[in-house]
């Protein structure tokens, strides 16, 4: 019995170790094997941009402690692991954060807000100097199903103190705030390639979109919020519009800027807590004297299937422990019965 029990225990320990190694290391290491090849034809005239959308790190109110500590720890660790793999693979020059950085930023206290900012800095901790562009989302400053929180706008602007236009090499990133419907002041004689970055989509807000286009003259739009991967292609005069979903098997999207079409690219969420399994990081390269942009999504592995594996292993371990306890109790009871039977027989003789 001891040998059999010892063998079962070894198999269970091997199962646990294998499950942890696969779920926490191997699954991340093999991710790049499934990504589309997004390379620069010339490193000297190419800019690599990584888009981070809707990480929405979990707060302290949705789930009470101590479960909140466990949930937040796992979610933060997942974001850190997937980001680290993407960064090492792609080596971006610019990181663009498209808002909804926090899940409870708009309803947090000042101390909680700064705690979330610290967690974000630990999650998206780049291993080398890189330019970073931050914009807020509705979960950071309000605006969706709740009033815009002007104190949170001020707090966000203080923590992430940046101008409304960020210039990197020959690219200008214009922070278009579709929550407050504000348009950044264009730079004087700006001949750079222009990105209009926002949290909410711009193009579906026709009057506001025309205001942005006439003021900034952007070459391309990038947005988030919907947690989906797609792009909208439309004529500058709004005479025609097309919507295309982007999925795992789609080739790299190649966009030229020598026609009358404009594009708005929707970057998917990078968090597994957003109710979708299609999660990842948007990546773009701009080259050929800013006349061509290539875009793809570096898809992340789902997280919930591996959490279910942990749950399955936990159930097996609990079941095995209970079975062992039951066998020991049954064995003790059997020994007691045998002892009583022996005493009864001795008394009769």
From TrEMBL:
Protein's organism: Pieris brassicae
GO annotation terms (biological process): GPI anchor biosynthetic process
Location of the Calcineurin-like phosphoesterase domain: 48-228
Membrane protein topology class: Multi-pass membrane protein
MF-aspect GO terms: hydrolase activity
Transmembrane segments: 307-330
Signal sequence, renumbered to the chain: none
Compartments reported by the entry: Membrane
Main location group: membrane
Assigned keywords, A-Z: Membrane, Transmembrane, Transmembrane helix
SUPFAM superfamilies tied to this protein: Metallo-dependent phosphatases (SSF56300)
PANTHER family, alphabetized: METALLO PHOSPHOESTERASE RELATED (PTHR13315), METALLOPHOSPHOESTERASE, ISOFORM E (PTHR13315:SF4)
Entry keyword Zinc-finger: no
GO CC term, one of those recorded: endoplasmic reticulum
Official protein name in the record: Calcineurin-like phosphoesterase domain-containing protein
